[in-house]
Design brief:
The complex is a heterodimer.
Chain A: H1 5-12, H2 14-26, E1 30-31, H3 32-39, H4 43-55, E2 59-62, E3 70-73, H5 75-81, H6 95-110, H7 112-117, E4 120-123, H8 124-131, E5 144-147, E6 160-166, H9 172-184, E7 206-211, H10 213-225, E8 233-237, H11 251-260, H12 262-265
Parallel strand pairs in A: 6-7, 7-8
Antiparallel strand pairs in A: 1-3, 2-3, 4-5, 5-6
Helix pairs in contact in A: 1-2, 1-4, 3-4, 9-10
Chain B: H1 2-33, H2 35-51, H3 55-80, H4 83-99, H5 106-137, H6 146-167, E1 181-190, E2 197-200, H7 202-205, E3 209-212, H8 219-239, E4 245-252, H9 256-273, E5 278-281, H10 294-304, H11 312-327, H12 337-343, H13 346-352, H14 359-386, E6 401-405, H15 412-431, E7 437-444, H16 455-465, E8 468-473, H17 483-491, E9 497-499, H18 506-511, E10 514-525, E11 530-543, H19 547-551, E12 557-562, E13 565-571, H20 583-586, H21 610-613, H22 621-628
Parallel strand pairs in B: 3-8, 3-9, 4-6, 4-7, 5-6, 7-8
Antiparallel strand pairs in B: 1-2, 1-13, 9-12, 10-11, 12-13
Helix pairs in contact in B: 1-2, 2-5, 3-4, 3-5, 4-5, 8-9, 10-11, 10-15, 11-14, 15-16
The chains are: A alpha/beta, B alpha/beta.
Chain lengths: ~300, ~625
């Protein structure tokens, strides 16, 4: 029987394949370049993997916006992953935001300190699923949480961070309100009220804002308004691969664009001088060991 | 002759006694014959008496049993393949109960139960309704005070049932399925539809309401529930495309630490209801007086200053002219208090109007130059006392709910000016292109600060702006300054009146009107206070709301008066989310006003929770720099 290259790769590295599917499920969907980065392969190989997922009815792909096609996990795929989410393609209005959050996650997980601290990314989709239908109409859910388990060597061990990706500026008062909620929240999302301790320590030790240049000023202004609490807010710029590619109409223009922006098309997993092939893959679960926990843990902390 | 008459009397008495015994015997026979149903009826009536249920509840229970009867008959018809057999099944089940084993077997009881339960419940309901009606009309009871005792006992039973209902987890939601606001459990209703849950349609929250109750009667709990219900319902309607976004503005005119505790509870209640942000003014948020349209700003600023009549009217005119010149200067209206004060200077005004097209204004400036210094001094004093809460930045559009604390007890004149300014800002917000919000303005003890803006004027103004106003006070007297004003407010409360325990409920109770009842007078027999069987009945008018009952209401009990009816409610306390701010912040006294030269610093920042503030966070910038690069320069 003839085996396709993608099938061959999957058979060689089944953990990586599963990690990619879980990653796509957690993030609502992935664009092709991000999928390639998650799988640690080139875009052509990532396309094949997506096609195989489609064949297995685990995922769907379509070109939803500018840039490469998006891949999202179907109901059957979610059931295979054991994730209780509502299946569906990423909302068109949220594509840019989803892409930005994915880029943030990829950039953070590619940093050596992330693996050293045993960080765990808890996605917005998971938080919303925990809330069930009880999310208030204007209640704010962070774009992600990063949990740092106790007992690791990093100084921030035991903390929980809220991640916020800001593409467009909100009003200062709205940003301020979001910051206040994130900084003062004590209970987990969707936990029983009895488990919430009103006077307990805040849930989020710090809030990490990743901003587009246009939104940075508003976020900084809101942080200043918080006074001493503002020290728990970190502001950084979004990583380069976070922005949606500009829409191109012609194949030649797309090729020119791809040729002109190779770094932007690849998420900054491989920050530094090392070539992509030499960098460690994102999914550390491919080679599990006692010291390195798998990329996707079965249950939320 | 006498003997015959006596014998006739004796025969009549004997016949009457025989008839009575016969009637009792027939009724007893019927009850025994219908034993399964009569047992259910007795249980139902006793339960209704114990729990204070209205008869309608037993009727409803009987109706809900009808599907069971239908299924039973259908199953019998299918099993026997004969409709006639199914029709005769109840009779045969009854027969087998009586002719079967003694005592009746479980199978016999189970066979008759599908029919006996609904019939018994309906019979119990009828019996209970008859008992209530006869006690209400005074035709039942052995002693003259039986009706009163019965009513008091029933009130106790009804209140106990309502308390049990609100204590059951999940029994009282914030809003009902049809979008009504749920206030609690019904204790008793008069001229209102009955039901276990006390709910009011959302439209009532879009009309004026009045809440009266003394301290410690559960007024705040009721208000928080109404506000949260308003917010939740309005947000749901907005999400469904049926309404605009809600905006709740609360003016707490008492101030002090209590107001801050309530503000914190309100914030948590609002969060529970789905509101994203609640601003607490002036502790944590500020409004901008300077965002008012120039003409309105002039009027508001002039009204904030106290000025007399008679000879002082001249001074008021000069002040208005100077303020108008400062506000409507060619360069645009002032942006802050400091900006405004800087303009109250003849030199500044002359420069501003020196373009050559404002000769009339320049003449006015020259004539008012002598008073400009005094005017500036008065405004400097006023604005310093008002603090930074009105100096911006911020507006009502920044939050879903605003809790404004006015120090009406400690600093009445300041609170009066603040109330006037806030109402003007809200009115401007409601009219100036911001009709995309459904606004509820709740004012508590507004009469304490209403010298410059009478409540009835606020009422009328709000009505014209499409705002709903909810006025709450501790007593009828606290509602407004004069009786005319009070009646005007209470009589125009289209959304209803909430009456909690208060020592003088008569004026409000009278607004509910009266109802026709049948009053029966009966003769007493002998010297013991026991009724005879003779008497007369007549139709009379009885007040719908009993003021004596209002005076005895317990904590958390309220009477909701609406359109000639009243529903007594056991209010369900909101179980809110954890505190959004630390207790220290919630009860912190207001910060002193900042100097006018630095208006932005007047907005205090929320202090962090002590647990976090005291702990120095470890530096995580190494990881963040690795992942995202260094923090961008401002």
């Amino acid at each position: 029987m003839r085996v396709s290259p993608a099938q061959g790769a999957a058979e060689r590295q089944p953990g990586r394949d599963a990690a990619g599917l879980l990653f796509a499920a957690e993030m609502y969907g992935l664009q092709l370049d991000h999928l390639a980065a998650v799988l640690g392969v080139g875009e052509a190989r990532a396309r094949s993997v997506a096609a195989r997922w489609r064949g297995q009815r685990h995922a769907e792909s379509a070109r939803l916006g500018p840039g490469g096609p998006w891949t999202w996990v179907t109901r059957a795929g979610l059931a295979t992953c054991g994730l209780p989410y509502t299946a569906g393609p990423p909302a068109l209005g949220r594509l840019a935001h989803i892409r930005a959050v994915t880029a943030v996650r990829l950039a953070l997980e590619a940093a050596p300190g992330y693996a050293a601290g045993g960080g765990y990314w808890r996605s917005e989709r998971r938080l919303r699923a925990r809330m069930g239908g009880r999310v208030g109409l204007r209640q704010h859910i962070p774009d992600g949480e990063v949990h740092w388990p106790d007992g690791t060597a990093v100084p921030w061990a035991g903390e929980c961070w809220a991640i916020e990706a800001e593409l467009t500026p909100k009003t200062t008062s709205r940003t301020l309100a979001i910051m206040r909620e994130l900084l003062t929240r004590t209970g987990d999302y969707g936990c029983p009220a009895a488990e919430i301790v009103a006077a307990g320590p805040p849930r989020h030790a710090r809030v990490i804002y990743l901003c587009a240049p246009a939104a940075r000023r508003t976020v900084a202004k809101a942080r200043e308004s918080l006074g001493s609490s503002g020290a728990r807010i970190e502001i950084r710029l979004l990583p380069p691969g976070a922005a949606m590619p500009a829409p191109t109409r012609h194949k030649a223009a797309r090729e020119r664009s791809a040729a002109a922006l190779p770094p932007a098309a690849t998420p900054p997993l491989h920050r530094g001088a090392a070539p992509p092939a030499a960098t460690p893959p994102l999914h550390r679960g491919a080679a599990p060991s006692a010291a390195t926990p798998p990329f996707h843990r079965g249950a939320a902390p | 002759m006498i003997g015959r008459w006596l014998s006739l009397i004796a025969v009549r008495a004997a016949l009457r006694a025989t008839g009575r015994v016969l009637r009792i015997a027939i009724i007893a026979a019927l009850i025994i014959a219908a034993a399964p149903a009569s047992v259910v009826a007795a249980i139902g009536a006793v339960l209704a008496w114990l729990r204070g249920w209205p008869p309608a509840r037993l009727y409803r229970a009987a109706l809900w049993c009808l599907p069971m009867v239908a299924v039973w008959l259908a199953a019998t018809a299918i099993a026997s393949r004969s409709a006639s057999v199914a029709a005769g099944t109840p009779y045969h089940a009854w027969l087998s109960l009586w002719h079967g084993t003694h005592p009746a077997s479980a199978a016999d009881i189970a066979a008759i139960a599908p029919l006996a339960i609904p019939v018994g419940l309906a019979a119990g309901g009828l019996a209970w309704a008859y008992r209530i009606r006869s006690m209400r009309t005074g035709t039942a009871g052995l002693s003259p005070d039986a009706a009163v005792s019965f009513d008091l006992r029933q009130w106790r039973h009804q209140a106990r049932s309502a308390r049990a209902r609100i204590a059951a987890p999940g029994a009282i939601p914030l809003t009902s399925r049809n979008g009504s606001l749920v206030a609690g459990a019904v204790i008793r209703s008069v001229n209102h539809p009955g039901g276990p849950i006390a709910s009011i349609p959302y439209s009532r929250m879009r009309s004026h309401q009045v809440v009266i109750g003394t301290t410690g009667t559960g007024k705040t709990t009721l208000l928080l529930r109404l506000w949260a219900g308003f917010m939740a319902t309005a947000l749901r309607r907005h999400a469904a495309g049926q309404g605009r976004l809600p905006l709740l503005v609360v003016l707490d005119c008492k101030g002090g630490a209590d107001a801050r505790r309530i503000a914190d509870r309100a914030r948590r209640a609002m969060r529970l209801a789905g509101a994203r942000s609640t601003a607490i003014w002036p502790d944590e948020a500020s409004l901008s007086l300077w965002a008012l349209p120039p003409a309105q700003l002039t009027t508001t600023l002039v009204d904030l200053i106290e000025h007399g009549t008679g000879a002082a009217a001249f001074y008021a005119d000069v002040m208005e002219a100077v303020v108008a010149l400062a506000v409507e200067a060619p360069g645009g209206p002032p942006a802050s208090a400091a900006d405004f004060l800087a303009r109250l200077d003849p030199g500044w005004l002359t420069t501003a109007y020196s373009s050559g097209e404002h000769e009339a204004e320049l003449a006015l400036i020259r004539s008012a130059a002598r008073q400009a210094g005094d005017i500036a001094l008065r405004f400097r004093t006023l604005l310093r006392r008002l603090g930074g809460g009105l100096d911006g930045p911020g507006g009502f559009g920044d939050a879903d709910a605003w809790y404004c604390i006015l120090e009406g007890t400690a600093e009445i004149s300041v609170a009066e000016a603040q109330a006037r300014a806030i109402v003007d800002i809200l009115a401007s917000y409601a009219t100036a292109g911001s009709r995309d919000r459904e606004i509820l303005l709740a004012v508590d003890e507004f009469s304490a600060v209403s010298r410059r803006l009478p409540v009835w004027q606020l009422y009328e103004r709000a009505r014209s702006l499409g705002l709903a106003v909810q006025v709450s006070a501790q007593s009828w007297e606290g509602l407004a300054a004069g009786d005319d004003e009070r009646y005007r407010i209470a009589a125009t409360a289209d959304g209803g009146i909430w009456l909690l325990r208060t020592p003088h409920p008569e004026p409000v109770a009278a607004l509910a009107g009266s109802r026709k009842i049948t009053e029966t007078t009966r003769h007493l027999t002998g010297r013991t206070p026991v009724w005879d069987h003779r008497g007369t009945s007549r139709v009379t008018l009885d007040p719908v709301v009993d003021p004596a009952l209002i005076r005895t209401l317990d904590v958390g009990q309220a009477a909701y008066i609406f359109r000639g009816g009243v529903t007594y409610v056991q209010v369900k306390r909101l179980v809110t989310a954890p505190a959004a701010v630390s207790p220290a912040t919630a009860v912190a006294p207001p910060t002193p006003p900042a100097p006018l030269a630095e208006p932005t610093s007047a907005k205090p920042a929320i202090p962090a929770k002590p647990a976090t503030a005291s702990r120095q966070l470890p530096d995580a910038s190494s990881l963040l720099d690795e992942a995202f690069g260094a923090e961008p320069a401002p």
